[in-house]
Design brief:
The chain has 179 residues and is of the alpha+beta class. Strands 1, 2, 3, 4 and 5 form a five-stranded antiparallel sheet that branches. The longest helix is centred in the middle third of the chain and has 21 residues. The model has no long low-confidence stretch (mean pLDDT 95).
């Protein structure tokens, strides 16, 4: 195995192999795995370590179905056994910045997506933010306070099939020292 291949083992393999998963078997995701996903989210970096986020773990079939109804790209929630809703808390962000809260919560979301893949689960980003009607829908279904930003819904489940990774590397998008 060459040096490049050695560097693709372990954590790099999780990053390079992760795919968006929209088809789930329906098999339940155990509570320990869901807890680990949220722990991974809480391990993300944040501006001044303010951690301006909150997470809602959803496992109720009726709630998942209601979320799917108002998210045009969230129909897979109808088959997912669970979801993690990632919320940004602007009032708790560095300088009370909504933008920084969203960035920090986005980092947490990526950690959740990568951890789901590492656990052999599948997930996909379903955006609520920045769409007012989607945020209002998620907020209404889950009783989220008005000052909290529902960033995304991450369905989680056991994938029906394992898809091959997509190589997204584009060397033409890399600039060395200067544009």
């Amino acid at each position: 195995m060459g040096t490049g291949e050695q560097k693709k083992s372990g954590g790099m393999r999780v990053i390079l192999d992760r795919r968006s998963v929209r088809d789930y078997t329906g098999e339940a995701v155990d509570a320990d795995s869901l807890d680990l996903l949220v722990r991974a989210g809480m391990s993300a970096p944040t501006a001044k370590n303010m951690q301006p986020w909150s997470f809602i773990i959803v496992t109720g079939r009726e709630t998942l179905d209601r979320l799917a109804e108002g998210l045009p790209f969230g129909k897979m929630l109808g088959k997912a056994p669970a979801a993690v809703v990632v919320c940004a808390l602007p009032e708790q962000a560095n300088n009370g910045s909504a933008e920084l809260a969203v960035i920090d919560a986005t980092c947490a979301s990526e950690n959740i997506l990568l951890t789901a893949h590492a656990l052999g689960l599948g997930s996909v980003w379903v955006a609520a933010y920045p769409y007012e009607e989607r945020m209002a829908h998620v907020g209404s279904v889950l009783g989220i306070p008005a000052e909290v930003v529902p960033l995304c819904v991450l369905p989680v489940g056991h994938p029906v099939a394992v898809k091959q990774p997509i190589d997204k590397y584009k060397p033409e998008r890399i600039h060395r020292e200067r544009w």
